[in-house]
Design goal:
By secondary structure, the chain is mainly beta. The protein contains one helix and eleven strands; from the N terminus they run E-E-E-E-E-E-E-E-E-H-E-E.
Length: 140
């Protein structure tokens, strides 16, 4: 993967996709293509979060393998996948997963990969704080 395979999203003037609004961080997120040209979008510890609309539900997300039909929200600003994929250029051959697939995290390499469609599907249910109901980040 080369540097041209990464684009920035946020309110800073130097972001590739500049978004306006008080809920958008300066560098809100990065989008990149993996070696298979699948599109991944990662929240860059923004103040107001990144949200994914999939199957008519909005969920807060830190890292997303984009699927056909997804919508994104950075803070309160909605963005289509077409807006993000267009930043890579017409010759980039950006690929979207046809259906939502859970991602796999390999702790040894520190990388996320697309799930092998032939393997047993698993869903990771986030651990929640019983007092606040918030999601507990177990990676720390």
């Amino acid at each position: 993967m080369n540097e041209d395979s990464i684009v920035t999203i946020g309110s800073n003037d130097n972001c590739d996709l500049k978004l306006e609004g008080p809920t958008v961080s300066g560098l809100h997120a990065q989008a990149r293509l993996d070696p298979g040209h699948f599109l991944w979008i990662r929240d860059e510890n923004s103040g107001r979060g990144m949200f994914l609309k999939r199957n008519d539900n909005w969920v807060r997300a830190r890292l997303v393998a984009a699927c056909a039909g997804d919508l994104l929200r950075f803070g309160d600003v909605e963005v289509t996948l077409d807006q993000v994929t267009s930043l890579f250029g017409a010759d980039s051959d950006v690929r979207l997963a046809p259906t939502p697939e859970p991602s796999l995290y390999d702790a040894r390499t520190g990388r996320y990969t697309l799930r092998d469609r032939d393997s047993e599907p698993t869903l990771n249910t986030p651990k929640r704080n019983p007092d606040t109901g918030g999601i507990v980040d177990e990676s720390k």
